[in-house]
Design brief:
Residues 35-219 form the Ketoreductase domain. This is Ketoacyl reductase. This protein has 355 residues and is an alpha/beta fold. The protein is built from eleven helices and twelve strands. Strands 3-2-1-4-6-7-11 form a seven-stranded parallel β-sheet, sandwiched between helices. Helix 2 links the parallel strand 1 and strand 2. Residues 340-355 have low confidence and may be disordered.
C-alpha cells in the first residue's frame, strides 16, 4: 500500500512525459517548407501575424480579404521578408468568388495543402440593438465562408489522402458572452461544423483543427462595429482586449495555432482564462449563465445610436484610447488595422439596411 502512491504518481508522470514527447515529435515531423496555404483574413490582425510566421517557415501563401489596399500593404510587407505571396481580393460570403479565388491559388501554386479559415467580423452591443442583418453578416463570415472554402478544397485533399484545415473559432464559440450575440451564435456554428468535419474527414487523411482563442491583442477593436452606446461599448471591449494576463499577444497566439496545425490537433483553446472559462462552463452551465447575467447588468444599456453602427475608430472616448489600451493600440499599428485611415478620421454612422 505504501508503494502504491509513488507507483501511481510515477505512472502519471511517465504518461505525461510520453505525451509531451509525442506532441513534439508530431510538430517537428510536419514541415511547412514549400507547403501552399490558403489563409482567409490574412491582411491584418491575427491573420497577418500568422502570415508572417508561416512565410518565415517557408510556406507559400494565398491570402484573401475584401480590401485591396489592405491586401497590397500586407503583401508588400510579406514579400519584403522573402515570402512568396498571392493576394486575392475576395468577398468570402460569395461562393462563386471563393471558388474563383481558390482556382487562382491553384493556378499560381498548384495544389493547396492547408486551409486556414481566419476571416472574421465583430458586432458589439446589447441584444435589443441587434437586427437580423447583424446575425446574417456574422453567419456569412464565420459559418458560410469557412464552409465554402472547405468544400472547394476538399476534393483535392481527399484525392491525395492528405490535407489540413484550421478553423479559427473563439471562446465565444464555447461560452456565449453578453453584447456579442451575433458573433457568439456564428462562432458556435463554426465550432460545431469544425468538430463534425474532424470526425468525418479523418478517414480521408484530412486533419481538422478547431481553434478557440480568448481575448487577443490584435488591434481588431478599431475595425469592430459598435451599436447602442457605442463609445461605452468600445471602451469596455478595447480595455478588456488590452489587459495583460487576461489577453494574449497576437504573436504568441499565432505560434500556438501554427504548432497545433503542425501536430494536427483536434482542438486548441488559447489563453488560461479561456481554458478555465470553458471547463467551468462545461461543468456548471447554469452557474455560468447566472454569472454572465450579472456581468450583463454592468455593461452599457441600450440607447445611444441605437441600431446604427459605428466603427471602433469612430467610437473613441476619454477611457479609450488611453493608457489602459496601450497594448492593443500598439498591436493595431503593427498589424495593418488602420486600412481606412487615408480616407480621413470621420465619425460616420452606418445605418442598417432594411430587411
Amino acid at each position: 500500500m505504501n508503494n502504491l502512491l509513488p507507483f501511481l504518481l510515477g505512472s502519471i508522470a511517465l504518461l505525461w512525459i510520453g505525451q509531451a514527447i509525442y506532441r513534439l515529435w508530431r510538430e517537428w515531423t510536419y514541415s511547412l517548407q514549400g507547403k501552399t496555404i490558403l489563409l482567409t483574413g490574412g491582411s491584418r490582425g491575427l491573420g497577418l501575424v500568422m502570415a508572417r510566421q508561416l512565410t518565415q517557415a517557408g510556406a507559400r501563401l494565398a491570402i484573401c480579404a475584401r480590401d485591396r489596399d489592405e491586401l497590397l500593404r500586407a503583401t508588400t510587407e510579406l514579400e519584403q521578408q522573402g515570402g512568396e505571396v498571392l493576394a486575392i481580393p475576395c468577398d468570402l460570403g460569395d461562393r462563386l468568388q471563393v471558388e474563383q479565388a481558390i482556382q487562382q491559388a491553384r493556378d499560381r501554386f498548384g495544389k493547396i495543402d492547408i486551409l486556414i479559415n481566419n476571416a472574421g467580423a465583430i458586432q458589439v452591443g446589447p441584444i435589443e440593438e441587434m437586427n437580423l442583418e447583424d446575425y446574417q453578416e456574422a453567419m456569412n463570415i464565420h459559418f458560410w465562408a469557412p464552409l465554402y472554402t472547405t468544400l472547394a478544397v476538399l476534393p483535392e485533399m481527399r484525392q491525395r489522402q492528405a490535407g489540413r484545415i484550421v478553423n479559427i473559432s473563439s471562446i465565444g464559440g464555447k461560452v456565449s458572452v453578453p453584447h456579442l450575440s451575433p458573433y457568439c451564435a456564428s462562432k458556435f456554428a463554426l465550432t460545431g461544423l469544425s468538430e463534425g468535419m474532424r470526425a468525418e474527414l479523418a478517414k480521408d487523411g484530412v486533419k481538422v483543427t478547431t481553434v478557440c482563442p480568448g481575448l487577443l491583442r490584435t488591434g481588431s477593436q478599431h475595425n469592430a462595429l459598435f451599436k447602442g452606446q457605442h463609445r461605452q461599448e468600445y471602451a469596455w471591449f478595447s480595455i478588456s482586449d488590452s489587459l495583460p494576463f487576461v489577453s494574449l499577444s497576437a504573436e504568441r497566439a499565432a505560434r500556438q495555432i501554427i504548432a497545433a496545425l503542425r501536430r494536427g490537433d483536434a482542438e486548441i483553446i488559447l489563453s488560461l482564462p479561456a481554458q478555465v472559462a470553458t471547463r467551468f462552463h462545461g461543468l456548471f452551465p447554469g452557474i455560468t449563465a447566472n454569472l454572465l447575467s450579472w456581468v450583463n447588468r454592468l455593461l452599457p444599456a441600450p440607447g445611444g445610436i441605437g441600431t446604427n453602427r459605428a466603427l471602433g475608430k469612430d467610437s473613441h472616448s476619454a477611457w479609450s484610447p488611453s493608457w489602459l489600451t496601450v497594448l492593443s493600440d500598439r498591436a493595431a499599428q503593427q498589424n495593418n488595422q488602420f486600412a481606412q485611415e487615408a480616407e480621413g478620421d470621420r465619425a460616420e454612422m452606418v445605418a442598417p439596411k432594411s430587411q
